[in-house]
Amino acid sequence: MRALRAAAVALVLAGAVLGAPGAATATGIAGPACDFNGDGRSDLAVGVPGESVGTLDSAGAVNILYGSAGGVTATGNQLFHQDSAGVDGVAEAGDAFGSDTACGDFNGSGHDELAIGIPRATVAGNVAAGAVAVAFGSGLGLSLLTSQVVSQGTLGVEGALEAGDSLGYALGTGDFDGNGRADLAAAAPGEAEGGLAGSGAVNVLYGSVLRLLTVNDQIFTQNSTGIDGVASAYDRFGGGPGVSTGQYRIGYALKQRIWTLGDRLHIPPHLTRGLSRTCRVCRCVRNRRRGHGAC
Ligand SMILES: [Ca+2]
Ligand SMILES: [Ca+2]
Ligand SMILES: [Ca+2]
Ligand SMILES: [Ca+2]
């Protein structure tokens, strides 16, 4: 059973379950299956991880646009960030709220919820440990007044809270146990499985009548029992391509071996031998501007 669940997680995170109810690709745009207000029309959530909140650069935000008879409309649109009323935690520069989003009806209410990745959030002093905020759907649209924020520091959630985990870097949803309520897969590609820096992990949390459960959840790495592959340092299991991490947009191809921690860009020395640190960062930015999406 665990192996089957892991396979489902990988498919959703790869954006391969297109068209499944509530599923969203790992692009930072949740849609088209999301219906937050239950009116039968899909709604759109657009992550803006580089958005400034006040003077806080790249604290991040999400724009919510609703469907109408004429298509997507600005009427009733919403803007969420971590300082919005009802959201646990506070916005901080570089949090990258909205780096990825995914929707699903976690509580079976008939209104989809929106999960929002905050991969660079500092949690209990752990820089870029990351978290996921959930805004709940209602007849009036998404509401943060009953929002839920989960991290690896949340009581019951699998995995140790550590700096650089980057939980929420990529999100996926699906009904993994087939009980009619959507479940959430949240990648933590910076997880250090068995001390292997950046080998990566995926947390899976299940829906319930009220909200996502923080018990009976799971965590998968390439070293999990029955999982093919072997966890190695910087594998970045769960780190899909083309997802913003705030200041840098880096294609996390498997084995690319480049990752971010806090506000710094880390590149293993053997990849950059002979280059100054400035050159390494410039090369990264230049490649991004050329549309390579990678350093
Ligand atoms: Ca709708
Ligand atoms: Ca719901
Ligand atoms: Ca961890
Ligand atoms: Ca379920």
From TrEMBL:
Keywords: Glycoprotein, Hydrolase, Repeat, Signal. This is FG-GAP repeat protein. PROSITE patterns: FG_GAP. Residues 1-26 form the signal peptide. It comes from Catellatospora coxensis. PANTHER family: GLYCOSYLPHOSPHATIDYLINOSITOL PHOSPHOLIPASE D, PHOSPHATIDYLINOSITOL-GLYCAN-SPECIFIC PHOSPHOLIPASE D. Pfam families: FG-GAP. Gene3D superfamilies: Integrin alpha, N-terminal (2.130.10.130). The lineage of its organism: Bacteria, Bacillati, Actinomycetota, Actinomycetes, Micromonosporales. InterPro entries: FG-GAP, Int_alpha_beta-p, Integrin_alpha_N. GO terms for molecular function: hydrolase activity. It comes from the Bacteria.
